[in-house]
Amino acid sequence: DDAMSLAYTSAEKILVSRRFTEYVPSPPNQLRLFSPIKSGSHRFRDEDAALTFKSMGDWRRFGLQPLRVAYEENTADCSSVVYHTLTGGHFDGELRITVKKTDHNEESNISVMVTMLVPKNGRKINSKLASKMVLFLAESTAASIMTGAKQILSRKQQSSSFRGRAKSKASEKRHTAYENLKLMEEMAEERRRRWQRNNPDAGSYRPSGNMMRGPGGGPSFG
After folding, report:
1. Could you tell me if 59 and 40 are in contact, meaning their C-beta atoms sit under 8 angstroms apart?
2. What is the pLDDT of residues 50-89, one digit of tens each?
3. Rounded to two decimals, what is the model's pTM?
4. What pLDDT digit, counting tens, does each position of 106-146 carry?
5. What's the distance, CA 99 to chain centroid?
6. CA dihedral in degrees (14, 18, 23, 29; nearest 10)?
7. What is the longest distance spanned by two Cα atoms in the chain?
């Protein structure tokens, strides 16, 4: 459950930060999805994006597809970002990137799904090129999620290690202070014993009785 929660937290962060093409196979620039993030509670409104893909353009050159975020979904088990196409590109329809918790054979997992939906009369790109695009986006997003989960786990371990070191250091300081105090008390006791050995009458008072005698020449009683 902890591992699943960690992975899903990472997946949500990847979708929010729009990091979908970090780990595209070499050459990495053959596919890029530029989707700047906007601040605010309705940040996806008017959030424009652009997808560039090798061989999608004329003469198998790079093609540019303008996009815009249509909506986002975020539940306890599923998160997704949906883009719709704008005019001036190479295909029509929607591009949906979804991350979902799944259970298969009593094993929990995170699945990444990328779907391209093209209307019946809309513009289409080559089916092999479309499949390649979808595969690259899914694999890259999954790799980003795994990397993010490892980073979160590493930070947690470092934080726990730091707290452990701080606790150990504080305990060591308390122990050192106790040992120093104990040593100072032993040294003070040793000095006192040494002083008493060198001054056997130290600390005692035996009156001589002279103070009890009257002054000379005075009257005597008795």
Report:
1. no
2. 999 999 998 889 999 999 999 999 988 899 999 999 998 9
3. 0.67
4. 677 889 999 999 999 999 999 999 999 999 999 999 999 99
5. 20
6. -170
7. 145
Any bridge partners for residue 68, and if so which? 48, 84
CA angle 90, 95, 97 (to 5 degrees): 150
The identity of residue 197, as a single letter, is R
Q: How many CB atoms within 10 Å of residue 28?
A: 12
Separation in Å, CA 169 to CA 158, 172, 173, 174, 180? 16, 5, 6, 9, 16
* Cα–Cα distance measured from residue 145 to residue 139, given in angstroms and rounded to the nearest whole number: 10
Closest C-alpha among 59, 119, 60, 57 to residue 89: 57
For 15, list phi and psi in degrees, rounded to 5.
-65, -40
Bridge partners of 78, per DSSP, are 100
Cβ atoms within 10 Å of 197's Cβ, excluding its own: 9
Considering only CA atoms, which of 116, 76, 83, 69 is closest in space to residue 99?
76
Yes or no: say if 163 and 144 are a contact pair by the CB < 8 Å rule: no
Containing H/E element for 153?
Answer: helix 127-198
Specify which residues 31 forms β-bridges with: 53
Length of the chain: 222
Structure tokens at 101: 């918790």
Nearest to 122 by CA among 90, 96, 82: 90
Coil vs helix vs strand at 91: coil
DSSP label of 98: E
